[in-house]
Amino acid sequence: xxxxxxxxxxxxxxxxxxxxxxxxxxxxxxxxxxxxxxxxxxxxxxxxxxxxxxxxxxxxxxxxxxxxxxxxxxxxxxxxxxxxxxxxxxxxxxxxxxxxxxxxxxxxxxxxxxxxxxxxxxxxxxxxxxxxxxxxxxxxxxxxxxxxxxxxxxxxxxxxxxxxxxxxxxxxxxxxxxxxxxxxxxxxxxxxxxxxxxxxxxxxxxxxxx
Length: 210
Hints:
The protein has helices spanning 11-22, 36-45, 62-72, 86-95, 108-119, 127-139, 151-161, 166-173, 177-191, 196-205; strands at residues 2-7, 27-33, 50-53, 77-82, 100-103. The chain has 210 residues and is α/β, with parallel strands linked by helices. The chain has a five-stranded parallel beta sheet, sandwiched between helices. Strand 3 (50-53), helix 3 (62-72) and strand 4 form a beta-alpha-beta unit. It is globular, with a radius of gyration of 18 Å.
């Protein structure tokens, strides 16, 4: 039996996942969490094989949680289940220690298949992402500017690219305005940009926001 933890800040999403996974004969949900603190507590205290983790949660992001889990729960295989398209976060999540990445638009049977695969110790990515990665290797592409950002910087980058002000970003990520301003400055330096307008233009040009 594959023991599963679910982490998502929306109760309806958690209920839907529990219903979907409850129909699989070889799976059982043994715990659920709505924020980073609960995720880390569950990972430490509840025996489980797979954590189905959302990226966007209050406070610490799913990507930041991956870093903490690599220290406290190395036995736990993490499947990112996100509303964000693969091209935004998948490669970054895998680099941070996730075992797989799925969008919330994926079919239930694909979710079950991904869980079984990572529970066995393997990685899971969609066929579409695998093709994109292969194309990138064949082309010998180098890292794009946004790929040089840290997890938190990338989160701030996406918030700014969506047209939010520094204060709005601070509220959304539960951080101080000076902290967000510092991240913004580093983003501009690393990406060789000058203004928020250029951040927005870059994000649209590279299909990082829609």
